[in-house]
Amino acid sequence: MLNRKQVANIKAELANEEAAFPLVFQALGDPCRFKIFKALMQYHDICVTDIANIFGITLSAASQQLRVLERLGLVLKMRMGQMVCYEINVENPIAKQLFKLFMPQVKKGRTNN
Questions:
Q1: Global pTM exceeds 0.90
Q2: CATH topology of domain 4-102
Q3: Distances (CA, A) of 82 to 31, 50, 57, 86, 89
Q4: Cβ atoms of 86 and 75 closer than 8 Å
Q5: Per-residue confidence at 111, pLDDT binned at 50, 70, 90?
Q6: Strand order in the sheet with 46-47
Q7: Which of 16, 66, 73, 93 has its CA 20 to 30 A from that of 37?
Q8: Where are the domains of the chain?
């Protein structure tokens, strides 16, 4: 049986996760966003224009989808002149777990092809 301190620790851990995971799953529940996230896991730093071309969507739609992933901390935005590119945020613990889940064949710690 758990003691009070253990119960308090578990509650604290779950409270921290409760806020993040439902939002992540809601974001990745969108088929287009999920495909964008998987593409970013497979290919290092893809630009917004590339995302738009790959998925046949407008630049505005691609930017909106990527902005959702960025707000959750799953991806990082990099500005290269006028181009805006994104990559997986390998420092985000949730992104790390998702990477392990969706890309088990890729060597640990490697996000480039």
A1: no
A2: Arc Repressor Mutant, subunit A (1.10.10)
A3: 28, 14, 19, 13, 21
A4: yes
A5: very low
A6: 46-47, 83-88, 75-80
A7: 16
A8: 4-102
